[in-house]
Design brief:
- The chain is an alpha+beta fold.
- The chain contains 8 helices and 12 strands.
- It is 17% helix and 28% strand.
- The strands form 2 sheets. Strands 3, 4, 5, 6, 10, 11 and 12 form a 7-stranded antiparallel beta sheet that branches. Strands 1-2-9-8-7 form a 5-stranded antiparallel beta sheet.
- β7 (132-134) and β8 (137-145) form a beta hairpin.
- It starts with 20 loop residues before the first strand and ends in a 32-residue tail after the last helix.
Length: 330
């Protein structure tokens, strides 16, 4: 998994797939080098075009969910800008979303606040969904083929790679955004992480978060995972540097090496210097083999690549993610 099934016991946050954040991507737009593409993928229970009606499989966004891409522009591990997305009730096979953009202190508020970039965006539940535009911004919301690839079975069995991609032909719900670079920061280096919150009893509770791939499901002990999802990156060094350094030491690092390696992913913010080509851990492209990279990092290079290749269904045009996969019987 990347951040799929990120609650304790490989469950969904709040036992609700609609609240499960799976992946964050950031790379320069192939169409316009003055723009950046930001993608968050969610809901790994999504079936998209299967024979099962979407509402039976909860293949929609949570109507009380608050989905966010956070941007740190000054290196203090706090949001200085944020894109936030909220959604209508799923009714008669339809759902719409609204996108907000906030800066400064508003970017750190849990609710959807700031400038409304675009509202009433139809969520695409089939292969015919198209992006929408609002001035220089492009936005796509809908079911897509999951680009994450990993030999998950091999990782649970002593890294004896099986050659089987657990995420081939799977779908996710995706929010893909293409924005002018100046909206993110005047500086080329930024930090990004995703959060998912949900309204419960009049409060907004954060239930999932992440910047780097394949962290919470594999790195944190089971009794830490749910608490981790509730916390903020600004507290990560205090809470996890010692824990993760000890884990790395047990896998062959010296104490000094372990701490240095832990600081690559702590705080859990994806760093992206846009003056350099995107490739994990500098941003993340859709074809990056992050699963192999994570276990090489975890074992000080003792575990080699799983040998899988990126999925071959990605598009050359925005939103770049492949169309939804059909399932048997669809």
């Amino acid at each position: 998994m990347s951040n799929h099934y990120s609650a304790a016991n490989l469950r969904f946050p709040g036992d609700d797939a609609r609240l499960d954040f799976t992946d964050l991507y950031a790379f320069t737009s192939p169409d316009d080098h003055g723009k950046t593409v930001l993608i968050i993928d969610l809901n790994p229970y999504t079936t998209g075009m299967s024979a099962m009606p979407p509402f039976l499989m909860k293949s929609e966004f949570h109507p009380d969910g608050i989905y966010r891409i956070n941007i740190d522009t000054d290196g203090d591990s706090r949001a200085d800008a944020a894109f936030t997305f909220i959604f209508s009730e799923f009714k008669d096979g339809r759902q719409t979303g609204t996108a907000y953009f906030a800066t400064g202190s508003q970017a750190r508020e849990p609710d959807a606040v700031g400038q409304v970039l675009i509202s009433g965006v139809p969520v695409g539940f089939d292969a015919g969904a198209e992006p929408v535009e609002a001035g220089p911004i492009r936005l796509f919301i809908g079911v897509r083929s999951d680009p994450f690839f990993a030999d998950a079975d091999g990782s649970f069995h002593g890294f004896r790679w099986t050659g089987q991609d657990a995420f081939a032909d799977r779908n996710i719900l995706s929010i893909a955004l293409e924005v002018p670079n100046e909206m993110l920061s005047v500086h080329s280096a930024i930090g990004l992480w995703a959060t998912v919150g949900v309204r419960r009893d009049g409060e907004i509770i954060q239930v999932d978060r992440g910047g780097h791939p394949t962290i919470n499901p594999f790195i944190n002990p089971n009794n830490v995972k749910n608490e981790y999802n509730l916390r903020q990156p600004s507290d990560d060094l205090a809470n996890y540097l010692e824990l993760w350094s000890k884990l790395l030491e047990s896998n062959g690092y010296s104490p000094a090496e372990a701490q240095k390696a832990a600081l690559i992913v702590l705080p859990d913010i994806l760093r992206y210097d846009r003056s350099q080509p995107a490739g994990y851990p500098n941003g993340r492209a859709l074809t990056d083999d992050v699963f192999s990279a994570r276990f090489a990092w975890l074992t000080n290079g003792k575990v080699g690549p799983d040998g899988l290749q990126p999925h071959d269904d990605m598009l050359k045009e925005f939103p770049y993610l492949g169309p939804p996969n059909r399932y048997p019987g669809a």
